[in-house]
């Protein structure tokens, strides 16, 4: 096998694309809780078997929006990248019944969560190399280049 080294300069645009597209994806769901809390409440009833008051749904949406905006800015990487990964893992696992039966109803759409979860996991692991347009930058990321097997 031939080993090649990918410089952070080559990796950074890909990580930025994952970060910004994931932020846009999650912002849609967070803002729904703020703009239409009754819809958010129905999601909780269907997937989390609870029915928080509308005020709680709005508060959750506001907190999620703030975390997502910090994530989009590349700030507090350990915490924001980890929070999105954890939130999405819980969200994805809550749809397990639809994932194991993808051909009934619109269940195939739930499978979009799986590669999103994998992308978030990769971004979390590679967060120190995600320096393009990021508030928090790791100066050592350019010295310690990840080796990839090609």
Strand content: under 5%
Oligomeric status: single chain
**Category from helices, strands and their pairing:** mainly alpha
List segments where confidence is low: pLDDT < 50 over at least 5 consecutive residues.
Answer: none
Plain-language structure description:
α3 packs across α4 and α4 runs antiparallel to α6. The chain contains six helices and two strands. The protein starts with a strand and ends with a strand. The chain is 63% helix and 4% strand. The mean pLDDT is 89. It is mostly helical and 150 residues long. The longest helix has 28 residues. Strands 1-2 form a two-stranded antiparallel sheet.
List the helices and strands and how they pair.
Elements: E1 3-5, H1 8-35, H2 37-48, H3 54-72, H4 77-93, H5 96-100, H6 113-125, E2 147-149
Antiparallel strand pairs: 1-2
Helix pairs in contact: 1-2, 1-3, 1-6, 2-3, 3-4, 4-6
């Amino acid at each position: 096998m031939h080993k090649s080294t990918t410089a952070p300069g080559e990796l950074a645009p890909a990580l930025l694309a994952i970060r910004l597209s994931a932020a846009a994806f999650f912002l849609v769901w967070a803002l729904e809780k703020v703009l239409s809390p009754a819809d958010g409440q129905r999601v909780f009833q269907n997937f989390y078997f609870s029915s928080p008051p509308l005020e709680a749904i709005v508060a959750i949406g506001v907190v999620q929006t703030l975390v997502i905006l910090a994530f989009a800015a590349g700030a507090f990487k350990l915490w924001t990248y980890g929070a999105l990964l954890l939130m999405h893992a819980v969200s994805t696992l809550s749809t397990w019944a639809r994932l194991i039966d993808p051909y009934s109803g619109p269940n195939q759409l739930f499978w979009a969560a799986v590669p999103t979860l994998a992308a978030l996991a990769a971004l979390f692991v590679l967060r120190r190399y995600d320096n393009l347009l990021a508030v928090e930058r790791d100066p050592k990321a350019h010295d310690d280049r990840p080796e990839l097997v090609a």
